Structure formats: structure tokens, C-alpha cells
Amino acid sequence: MRTFAVIGLGRFGTAVAETLVANGQEVLAIDIDPDKVEQIGDLVTHAVQCDATDERALKAIGIDNVDVAVVSIGEAIEASVLVVMTCMELGVPEVIAKSGTVKQGKVLEKIGVHRVVYPERESAMRLAHALATPNQLEHLELVKGVGVVEMPVPPRYVGMLLRETQIRTHYNVNVAAVVRSHGLDPRVPLNEQDRVNFIPSPDDLLREGDILLLIGHEHDLARFQEEQ
Ligand code: ATP
């Protein structure tokens, strides 16, 4: 289990802390505002009120013992930069910072933060992506430019073996898994584990209602979806 610090308990920081706790992780929650600390106090492992721009205060509460720090202290660039730098200087192995703007994100990247997240931009992009590709059930960016897409088997592939579809050759995307809607006998419901075929073989038959999990470069995935 890893330990996390969440610094800044606005809506984003609070949601991160709550979800980490719900996933059984240890969370140290920090905010300069005593009310925020009190509100989250019962939920997280430790909640501490301190000014995170103060290096000595951060050290005193043991920030150097956490594995990951999530910095989400709002729009003030100066404070974010200072807190990120302090966490890195104190040896936190992974520092993630929330940014509202690309400009702020660039500054944070320049000073070496491990990851910048842009919650509003990212959720807007996810929504727009979903609206633009209604067939797509799920889209996840794994690393920059490479993603996973979940979508129903396009009608033109129904009844084909995986190798006959030539999806990999034609589109440079890999079918990482096939989620079955039903077994060979459609009247018999599949149990949950048998539903996901995560080592699909070239001889697997694609059937109506199956769902494909595709992995590839975003532009290849987009082309695949457009051409169905
Ligand atoms: P959202 O609410 O959508 O996450 P936001 O990041 O702008 O937006 P704010 O509501 O501004 O969030 O919350 C930032 C939090 O960070 C506030 O709770 C604020 O008290 C806290 N904060 C700001 N400066 C410091 C600091 N120097 N040290 C610790 N906490 C801070």
C-alpha cells in the first residue's frame, strides 16, 4: 500500500482524498483552512492544518514519508510552484499537480512535476470525445497519444474470426480483449469471469453484441472508429 498526501482540499483535492480512502489507501490531507481540515477529518487517516508553502511545516508533518503528493491548491501559480518544489526537495517520489490553465501547467512541468492534471479540460475533452463518437463506450488515455477504446463490435466484423478482420494490419490497433455479451448458446448467461476474453486468439469468432477493447495510437483509434 502506498501513502498519499493531498494538499489543498477544494472540490478536486477532496474528491481525490475521498476516492483514495474508498480504495483503501492511506491519506494525509492538508489545507491552510481549518474548516476544510475539520470537514475531512473523520474520513482520512490524518488531516492537518498548515500552510503548505512553509517548508518547515511540511517537514514537521512528515511529508517526506509519503509516496505520492497531489497538490491542488487552486489558481495561485506561485503557491503551487512553491509547494511542488518543496515536496520534491523533501524527497517525495511522485508529485502530481492540478492546474487550471495550460500556462500554469507549463510552469509546473518546467520545474519537474511528475504529472500535471487539468481536470476541467480533461473532462471537457472526454465529454466531447464521447459526443463525437457515440459508438464508443469508454476512452482512456494510457500515456500521451496512446489510448484504450471500448466499443461494440462494428457490424461488418460480426461473424468473422479475429484474424479475418485484419484490424491490426489495416488500422495498426490491437484488440486487447473481447467482452462477450453471451455464450455460444445465447440462452445461457455467462458468468462474469468468462465474459472477458483477455487473451483473444486469431481464431476467436466475433459475435453481435460483443465489445472490443482496442489499444493503439489515438489517431489510429480515431480512424478505426470513423471508418466503421
Ligand atoms: P476546486 O474546488 O474545483 O478544486 P480550486 O483548486 O481552485 O478548485 P479551491 O477551492 O481554490 O480549489 O481550493 C484550493 C484549496 O487549497 C483551498 O481549500 C485552500 O484553502 C487550499 N490552500 C490554498 N493555499 C494553501 C496553502 N498555502 N497551503 C495549504 N492549503 C492551501
Features of this protein?
228 residues, alpha/beta, Rossmann fold, 2 domains, 10 helices, 11 strands, 36% helix, elongated, binds adenosine-5'-triphosphate
Q: Secondary-structure element order, as H and E? A: EHEHEHEHEHEHEEHHEHEEH
The CATH H-level homologous superfamily of the largest domain: NAD(P)-binding Rossmann-like Domain
Q: From the alpha carbons, calculate the radius of gyration and give it in angstroms.
A: 22 Å
**How many beta strands in the DSSP annotation?**
11
Q: Return residue spans where pLDDT drops below 50 for at least 5 consecutive residues.
A: none
CATH topology of the largest domain: Rossmann fold
Task: Give average pLDDT, whole number.
Answer: 91
With strands numbered from the N-terminus, the spatial order across the biggest sheet is 3-2-1-4-5-6
User: Percent of residues in helical segments?
Assistant: 25-40%
Strand content is 15-25%
As for the number of domains, it is 2
Shape: elongated
| Contiguous helical run count | 10
Present as ligands are:
adenosine-5'-triphosphate
Outline the fold blueprint.
Layout: E1 3-7, H1 11-22, E2 26-31, H2 34-40, E3 46-49, H3 55-60, E4 68-71, H4 77-89, E5 94-98, H5 102-110, E6 115-117, H6 119-132, E7 138-143, E8 146-152, H7 162-165, H8 167-171, E9 174-179, H9 192-195, E10 196-197, E11 211-217, H10 218-226
Parallel strand pairs: 1-2, 1-4, 2-3, 4-5, 5-6
Antiparallel strand pairs: 7-8, 8-11, 9-10, 9-11
Bound molecules: adenosine-5'-triphosphate (ATP).
